[in-house]
Every structure is written in C-alpha cells, then in structure tokens.
Amino acid sequence: MSADEEPYAGLVTRTVALAMDAVALTVGFAVASGVVGLILSLFTAVQVTSPGAVVGVAGGWTLVVASYFVLFWTLAGATPGMRLMRMRVLDGRGEPPRLGRAVLRLIGAVLAAIPLFAGYLLVLVDDRRRGLHDMIARTVVVYATEEPPEEEPQSSSSSRAFTTASRREPTSSLR
Fold first, then answer.
1. Residue 84, domain member (yes or no)
2. How many other C-beta atoms lie within 10 A of the C-beta of residue 40?
C-alpha cells in the first residue's frame, strides 16, 4: 500500500507519540547520566555545576536525541512512540526515509519549533497533514495499517499451542 492510499496521521496522535519518545529519552538519559556521574565522582574531582560538565551533558543530550530520532526514522521508519501510536514516516517512494531525509526532517523539526511551534500547526491545514519538517524533508506520517496474518483464527491458547506443536519437526526420543 502506498503513502497515497494510507490515512495521514494527525496532530494529536503525532504529539502523543512525541511525548512518549520524550519521556523514554528523558528517563533513559537521566539514569545513564546518574550512573556515569556516580562513577566519575568515585574516580575524579569533577564538580557537576562546572561549566565544562554542564556543556558536556547538554552536548551529550543533544547527540542522544538527534541519534535516537534519525536512527529510528531511517532503520525502522518509526520511533518507539510512533510504533505505539501505529504510525510511520514515509518518503516519496513509500519507504522509510534514508539518512539524508531523516537528518533534514530533524533540522526541520527544530526550525518548526522556533517560532512558537508554528511549523507544527501546518499539520492542521495541509492536505497531507505535513508539518514544516515534513515539507522540508518531503516526507509524510501515515497510520501504519498492518495486514492480518493469513492463518485461521484460534479460539483458545490451548488450540494455538497444539497447532504450533503439530507444525514442529518430529524429534527423536533418544536425546
């Protein structure tokens, strides 16, 4: 199914997915920073309020966030938050964006946030529900429609286990 046939994701769904990603990033980075800070405090005399430490943490945070979004968009077509909301990012070919488009999308997302998040409000008026960052990278966000498996529906877990067990190769009892 191409991007033209799939429904485009709206502002609320995309915002919820972004909030989920932000929570995951914040918790993960806080835990990792705490562990690294504890280890450094045992072996060095670094003050956590020193300008160097603050700049280092801010730079590390920026690198983690940028890598998170670019890698998930490029490799999986969706971040974990987008997957939970059943969305994905597609380029003009109907595939996940390549690295260059994903980087452009990230830069566009920063630019869209600068004028009071006005670049995101374009989702409300665009035919394909694209924000400024989508327009810059020439991508769309669509709801992911999964095709159901071609198996017959199972009535209970015991029959599913029986079906799975019956598909296995015969094994020797002499193991």
1. yes
2. 13
Domain of 55 in residue numbering reads as 11-146
Q: What are phi and psi of 56, to 5 degrees?
A: -65, -45
List the structure tokens of 6. 């799939």
Q: What is the average pLDDT across 6-20?
A: 94
Q: Is the pLDDT of residue 163 over 50?
A: no
Please report whether residue 153 resides in a domain.
Answer: no
**Amino acid present at 99:** L
Domain count, the chain: 1
Q: Are 78 and 88 in contact (CB under 8 A)?
A: yes
What is the structure's pLDDT at 174? 43
Domain assignment present for residue 105? The answer is yes
Distant-in-sequence, close-in-space partners of 7: CB < 8 Å, separation ≥ 6: 142, 143
pTM: 0.76
Q: Identify whether the C-beta of residue 112 lies closer than 8 Å to the C-beta of residue 89.
A: no
Decide the pairing of beta strands 87-90 and 140-143: antiparallel
pLDDT digits 0-9 by tens, 30-69: 999 889 888 888 888 767 777 887 898 899 999 999 999 9
**Residue 15 within any structural domain of the chain:** yes
Q: Across the strands, what pairs with 87?
A: 143
